[in-house]
């Protein structure tokens, strides 16, 4: 799909749940292809409106460039344009971001997603120059990814205002957890009615949609996609009673699965372990991280069983 055709796809905001897809691994550099297909089909059956590969939950920066290309190619082949595939291209090297973006375009992805380069923090003028230099090199539309807790740099308000003037930047995933920041950006919608605004923290999904955001890039949707899809639908319809009910279940999932262990990798470990408990995929983690050991796994197993009982049909 050409960049022009993909841009046409985003003439309206991308609404709904766009899960950040886990990357099932057999070992540190081997994709479990059968498991990836199961995970993708599971989420598609749950009603998601897009899929985001090689994001934080997908452990993108921890994977070899060869493996990243394999993930892209297989995801695009399995999805086959049933929903848009968004591909993370965040990297410390400019040329590698461009290279992965070109691989995404060749495989048939619809857009790419970029957080600020990490390791050595750049200033806002440098970040704007970086985007200005990168845009002409990208063959697909671009979503910004605001993840300051991991990149140490935010897309500050003036950068986003500038980005909204660039037709090939089509939206933003905000994982800052700062609703004041998010609401300031929502005020700019008249400038770009086609601009997509989605949130990362699933605890903020209901609030995001009720306030006018378009959806969520929520890791828990790898496991229970129908929960998030139904929460989005209830919030978008203004059904506050149902929104509260489903929001409480999302909070229960986040509190049970994401707080096991002492490290920031616990969220991804929790999602992968839960997927493993459901038989969707193994829980092998990309180095330097490791899967939960047996005591933690038993906690996850118990949490998954309780969540299944609470969710009922939404757990299917």
Keywords:
316 residues, 46% helix, 8-stranded parallel β-sheet, two-stranded antiparallel ribbon, 13 helices, 11% strand, TIM Barrel, 10 strands, alpha/beta
Give the arrangement of secondary structure elements.
Blueprint: H1 3-9, E1 16-17, E2 25-27, E3 30-31, H2 33-45, E4 51-53, H3 65-79, E5 85-88, H4 94-107, E6 111-114, H5 124-134, E7 142-146, H6 148-151, H7 157-163, E8 169-174, H8 179-186, E9 196-199, H9 205-210, E10 215-216, H10 225-237, H11 240-257, H12 266-277, H13 294-311
Parallel strand pairs: 1-10, 4-5, 5-6, 6-7, 7-8, 8-9, 9-10
Antiparallel strand pairs: 2-3
Structure characterization notes:
It is built from 13 helices and 10 strands. It starts with a helix and ends in a 5-residue tail after the last helix. The strands form 2 sheets. The protein has an 8-stranded parallel beta sheet with strand order 1-10-9-8-7-6-5-4. Strands 2-3 form a two-stranded antiparallel ribbon. Residues 1-5 have low confidence and may be disordered. The protein has helices at residues 3-9, 33-45, 65-79, 94-107, 124-134, 148-151, 157-163, 179-186, 205-210, 225-237, 240-257, 266-277, 294-311; strands spanning 16-17, 25-27, 30-31, 51-53, 85-88, 111-114, 142-146, 169-174, 196-199, 215-216. It has a domain at 8-223: Alpha-Beta Barrel (TIM Barrel), CATH 3.20.20.70. Helix 2 (33-45) crosses helix 3 and helix 3 packs parallel to helix 4 (94-107).
